[in-house]
Amino acid sequence: MPLLFQTVVNGLLVGGIYAAISIGFQLAFGVLDVVDFAVGGWAMLGGYAGYWLATLLHADLYISLPVCLIFFGIVGYLVGPLIYRVRTSRYARPALMALAFTFGIATLMRGGALTLWGFNTRSLSSVFGEVSFQIFGITLPLLRLIAFAIALAASAGLTIFLRATRTGLAIRATAQSKEYAALMGVDVKRISMLVYGIYTGITGMTGVLLAAIYSVTPEVGIRYTLLAFFVVVLAGLGSAAGVLAAGLLLGVLEALVAIYIGASYTYLIVFGVLYLALLVAPQGLFQRPQQGFRA
Length: 295
Description:
Number of strands: 2
Shape: globular
Distance between the termini: 37 Å
Low-confidence stretches: none
Largest sheet: 2 strands, antiparallel
Strand order of the largest sheet: 1-2
Number of helices: 11
Structural class: mainly alpha
């Protein structure tokens, strides 16, 4: 029983980070109408950025996290117009072209990381990594607690931003209908660029947390992309409120499978659960019968 409780707690702590990656991915989908295959690549690059900041500048998490948030936010803001241009192209099937474009970005990220840093696994050390607490016999690593708190704060901050600011209102209007938003004076292109920048900033920052808890290689991007797809599809496309619950569920499920069945069966069981869940609720477990992105 103690092992079960410990496993569930570990899964919940990691699941919060999965939710942080996925909520930005969900937001980008809601506004740009693009399923971004590069979501795991942004997390992977964030992990490498955190590693090199720690290695070259001896920067710990309290420095590397805001730096990566700002840096990847700026990079995403600059990349956003390219995706917007492809998505709004007059050529046939712009949605398919946008998928191909983001897949190309993901491939470029992976290939560039392999060229620059090779296959070697790199771990991000932190002063918080060796500290843990014992509560009712359950070990709570400080690093995972901090990562969980930051992930929840990022998700909550994004939700408040969308609900309580004029820019957030413009983002939600754009997600509901780009045509109507443009008629109301919203600069849809600028909003799309801003949303993509927010998404890449949060994802890059979260990649630093994942590199500190686990490690980083050029191959982890594919894994994080699959996990983000799982969370968003299980929550329901357009259900931001369900992303947190789906992320926590994924973290617990992954931890239980790794401990009691075997890590090699993780993807088989995780996506088997997703398949069964979608048979019961094709719109997602947390999707209400309405359209559009909801904060």
